[in-house]
Amino acid sequence: MTDATTQPARATRILTLAGLAWLEARRTRLLWAALAVSALAVSVSLFARSLALTESVRLQISFLAPGARLGAVLLTCLHVLSSMLRESQDRVSDLLLSLELPRGEYLVGKLAGYLAVATAFAVFLGAPVLMVAYGPGAAIWLASLVLECWLVAAAALFCAVTLNHMLLGTAFVMALYLLCRTMTAIVLIATASPFRGEDLWHTGLAHALRGLSWLVPDLAAATRTAWLIDPGGVPSSVAAVMAQMAMGVGLFLGAAMVDLYRRNR
Amino acid sequence: MGSIRAERPWRSVPAGTAAFTALCVAALIALRAAETGSAADARGLPPPPDSDVVTVLSGGDTAGAGYALTLYLQAFDNQPGVSLPFASLDYGRVEAWLSTALAVDPASQYPMLMATHLYGQVLTRPDKQRRMAEYVYARFLEDPDRRWPWLAHMAIMAKHRLGDPRLAIRYADALRDHANGASVPAWVRQMHIFLREDVGEIDSARALLGGLLDSGAVTDPQEFAFLSQRLKAMGSVGNSSPVTK
User: Fold this and answer.
1) I need a surface site. Which of A21, A149, B15, B114 has the fewest CB within 10 A?
2) Whole-angstrom Cα distance, residue A226 to residue A142?
3) At CA A236, angle to CA A62 and CA A60, rounded to 5?
4) Is residue B206 included in any domain, yes or no?
5) What integer pLDDT is reported at residue A182 of this predicted model?
6) Does residue B69 belong to any structural domain of this protein?
7) Is B240 left (phi over 0), alpha (psi -120 to 50) or beta?
8) What average pLDDT is seen over chain A?
9) Does A239 contact chain B (CB < 8 Å)?
10) How does DSSP assign A112-132, residue by residue?
11) Is B79 exposed, middle or buried (0-12, 13-18, 19+ CB in 10 A)?
12) In Å, how far is A211's CA from the nearest CA of chain B?
């Protein structure tokens, strides 16, 4: 009864936490940083375009889209890690957890806010790309970029809770991101090469790599520049890739919650 | 007072949270396992990047860049869903990739091994075997003391696989004339003698072997005895003489 009368509803608590995370991003002028990175990517792409003899728009997109993708991912990772760690070091998270606030709700609220910030990063950095490349491929590219940033935000949240260290967290998230983007190629080389031995070591390694690849989303098939520059460049499997990224977000959130629930503080 | 444990027991995790995490893991595995992979679509080997560009992009770490090039070439015949036979590759392009890898990292033997043991072994295409043998010969001349094993292999291959002892002798002559480093074993420089013997040039072989023994270049007593025995056999039989075990 007490919960129903004196405590705000679960959704309200989560939205409040998300609002605080969003407010922090606004007040630290983070979106201006996103605009600056976006301007840098646009400048580089325009310079490259000015050098082109032909296919200038295509060339510009080929520079702009990967730059925007990398910028959005880096900004998201660094923001989530620094925000969570600052809150932990200022003992704000301890204060929040001392209230009648379930740890799971605390993390869901924080992640919801970070997802909103990550969406803003993706839109700010993806907008110049959409101005140059249009069509359904561009919309799908932006949706994929948003999901990719969400995945990085969730991974950074997990690292902040588990590792509680800026350098280690950044290294882990970036290594994980790189692994997600190269896993398919690694598995292909390990399993399909005729130079692979048939001994237990090689066979076991191939199985282990294939098993590991099932645990990470296939980012090599996500947010591809080809979707922007090739007519009909969006494959039919894009929905499955996006679902993988969404499941990855859930996986990292779940792992962070499990770790926070077991943390003795 | 006992110390406080850093972690609470697993049962402190709510069942809903554990179930949600397990569900996400299962869904991700299911989605990844259901992937059908890329459609089979064999591509031709593209031209390699310029070696200067590779050097700049590698930030000076040319050894790593050289291996990256060779690994790309090595994996190229295995495209998603397709395994291309080496014979179907454009050997002009293959040579260009190998040359770029060697230009980026001249000390590496990896491209030479690929030329000799991968692309030089297409039994169905003797023309491509010959082409790769000539490629190895040209690269050998650039760095004989380091690349002699590959030309020696090609000399054997020319004799036994291609059935062209003249080509084998040409390579063996090149080994004799250019591979003079301290690390090059004597048999490499003697190979041309026995190849000549095999094709019936007994007089030439005898003269060359006698000259070699007289020159004092053979210092190992057992090797000297073996070669002397071979010289004697050439003189008595006058034809190709098998080695007695």
Assistant:
1) B15
2) 13
3) 10
4) no
5) 85
6) yes
7) beta
8) 87
9) no
10) HHHHHHHHHHHHHHHHHHHHH
11) middle
12) 9
Q: Which of A68, A45, A67, A44 is nearest to A57 (CA)?
A: A45
Which residues from chain B sit within 8 angstroms of residue A213, using beta carbons? 32
* Alpha-carbon gap: B36 to the closest alpha carbon of chain A (Å): 9
**Residues of chain B contacting A251 with CB distance shorter than 8 Å:** 21, 24-25, 28
pLDDT band at A192 (very low <50, low <70, confident <90, very high): low
Number of structural domains in chain B: 1
Assessment of whether the complete model's pTM goes beyond 0.90: no
| Residue B204 falls inside a structural domain | no
Task: Please tell me the distance from the alpha carbon of residue A44 to that of residue A49, in angstroms, as a whole number.
Answer: 9
Q: Is residue B47 part of a domain?
A: yes
Q: By the CB < 8 Å criterion, does A250 face chain B?
A: yes
Q: Is B2 exposed, middle or buried (0-12, 13-18, 19+ CB in 10 A)?
A: exposed
- Residues of chain B with Cβ-Cβ distance to A244 below 8 Å are 28, 31-32
Domain range for B70: 1-107
* Tokens describing residue A55: 């296919």
Highest mean pLDDT among A107-111, A189-193, B45-49: A107-111
